[in-house]
Amino acid sequence: MAQIRLARPADRAALYRICLETGDSGADATALYDDPELIGHVYAGPYLAHAPDFAFVLEDGDGVCGYVIGALDTAAFNATLEREWWPALRAQYAEPAVPAGERRRDEVMAHLIHHPPQPDPDVLVTFPSHLHIDLLPRAQGGGHGRRLLTTLFGALHGAGSPGVHLGVGGRNTRAQAFYRHFGFQDLRVLPGGGAVMGWRL
């Protein structure tokens, strides 16, 4: 039985690897990036560094095979990243000059480093926390995603959060179905069929 535990700084490489290997709407994105760390810099590293109390990993006999990471107060977390996370990465990765529709995956991530997406303030009123969850194929389909979410929800609720939100892309229909089956409610429709979904804690 795979075990859930708090993430540790030593798990950074594993989180980055999982982020990359699930980074193409749930499929392996390794071949899509020249810099394999870029997607992890955006979607995994900030949480391990600045929200460690809400970062959990799933570990089986072969190592870390999944994670759920979140932030208690999205607005405060984003402010922290502006001070302490993005500046060094902005110095390392130049803002791409090519138009949005012509960017390669590395350039898309570099753009996000310079222009992190801003949440809808109306969503934050009821769902101030947010999360990301990723599992390798060997960890999918066995109830581990539900266990990870339940673990994070307990931590967020215990810290006083009334609700948590997440965003899912339009191509990731499997994830959308999972969240809706879990009980998430649709909050916003995103371009391309994506959605922002929320869960009351």
From TrEMBL:
The keyword Acyltransferase applies. Its EC number is 2.3.1.-. Keywords: Acyltransferase, Transferase. The keyword Transferase applies. PROSITE patterns: GNAT (PS51186). Gene3D superfamilies: 3.40.630.30. GO terms for molecular function: acyltransferase activity. It holds the Pfam family Acetyltransf_1. Residues 2-201 form the N-acetyltransferase domain. This is GNAT family N-acetyltransferase.
